[in-house]
Amino acid sequence: MEKIRDIERDEILRKEIRAAGLKAILAWYPEDIVMTGGTWPCNGITLCLYPVDGQPVFYAGAGEPPDVLPPGFLHRRFTPQPGAWGELRNQLAGDLVLLGVRAGEIGITGDVGQHALPSFPGETTPLTQAAAAIILEGMSPRDATPLFDRLSQKKTRREIEAIRRANAAARAGLEAFHASLKPGRTEVDVAAAVESAIQEHSGSGGCALARGWAHVQGGANVSMAGTFSRSSATKLADGDLVLVELATCVDGYWSDLTRTAPVGRRIGERPRALLTAVREAQAAAIAAVRPGATHEQIDAVARKYLAGKGLGSGFTHNCGHHVGFRYHDRGPTLQAGSLAPLEAGMVITVEPGAYGVDLGGGARFEDNVLVTADGAEVLSPRDVAWKP
């Protein structure tokens, strides 16, 4: 897909940087490179210097492919030197002088504990807080973590379309999930089919590279799917409930989906009631999404519905989170005490669930929901799911 500079994101960045009393920000975590540059780093050895005024600068390690370089930016190449970073430091210092950015006027993000993967996910990026201390020595960077948090929560029109593409690729994975639910197949068999279907989506539908990470739990394991996600060699049997937790990344933009379905046509009364109640709880929560509603209120709708069905004790996690630049974006989660209001342009997951052997197993349905000016729009393929 041809890369185009996101003018809307550019305007937001410059406005927010100025409002924070800064002259520039420096991004290096993969999710922040996607947000500021609209490009997905390969090895993750990239930085983006975004000024209030002037042309932004993109720094790419020698091992980054040429197509990672975003349009409309000044491009710098450097040879990574973990522990030294001298070449990169000199480039950055020179660009700050050219842009008129003095010591103390540049903002960086802190380590928030989890980060998106680059497109080559065998190792994490070496650009850490320790590396930043070397690169930025003498430049007196300011902690701009709250600014980065705020910038990531509302998506531009272009970013929303990119998240749609991630969900379009995820559709192929969900279809493979439902088609693979056969007695004798293992959780790993199903997960492999899901991930393969997603990666095969690469090169179509405006998608350059699609990756999927599927975690499948069935039979007795599904009752633990509210605690952890893991595929095993456990074989599926007719009538088992099976849950897939699915992360999908397309060109650096993420979707996060969950589906639960039975193996075969035989399903017990209690598992059927569980699936039906969780699916209906999700529908009620999605219907409550609108600007001004708090994160807490969406959680409460789903929680009240499941409690009314006698399943409240099984809803052991929050009802969702922000999504798009990461599998789990920065920002408040949908849970009790989370009083921040939703705003148009936010993209959240809505994912109630209930788990327990005494409840009939375990079930969760999760979709990605865009907060619109007057309500909500589901971006993910909600039609690809078990139906009562």
Provide an overview of this structure.
This protein has 388 residues and is of the alpha+beta class. The protein is built from nine helices and 14 strands. The strands form four sheets. The chain has a six-stranded mixed sheet with strand order 4-3-2-1-5-6. The protein has a three-stranded antiparallel sheet with strand order 7-8-9, covered by helices on one side. The protein has a three-stranded antiparallel sheet with strand order 10-13-14. The protein is globular and about 70 Å long.
- For the CA atoms, what is the radius of gyration? 22 Å
Oligomer class: single chain
- Overall geometry comes to globular
**DSSP summary: helix tally:** 9
The end-to-end distance, rounded to whole angstroms, is 39 Å
Low-pLDDT segments, ≥5 res: none
Would you tell me which CATH topology of the largest domain applies? Answer: Creatine Amidinohydrolase
Tally of individual domains: 2
> Biggest β-sheet, characterized?
6 strands, mixed
Number of strands: 14
Mean of residue pLDDT? 95
Question: What is the helix content?
Answer: 25-40%
Label the CATH architecture of the largest domain.
Alpha-Beta Complex
CATH superfamily of the largest domain: Creatinase/methionine aminopeptidase superfamily
Report the order of strands and helices.
HEHEEEHEHEHHHEEEHHEEEEE
- Structural class by sheet pairing and helices: alpha+beta
In spatial order, strands of the major sheet run 4-3-2-1-5-6
Provide the fold topology.
Blueprint: H1 7-19, E1 24-27, H2 30-37, E2 46-51, E3 57-61, E4 74-78, H3 86-99, E5 106-108, H4 129-135, E6 142-143, H5 145-153, H6 157-180, H7 187-199, E7 210-218, E8 241-250, E9 253-262, H8 269-287, H9 295-308, E10 347-350, E11 353-356, E12 361-364, E13 367-371, E14 376-378
Parallel strand pairs: 1-5, 3-4, 5-6
Antiparallel strand pairs: 1-2, 2-3, 7-8, 8-9, 10-13, 11-12, 13-14
Helix pairs in contact: 6-7, 8-9
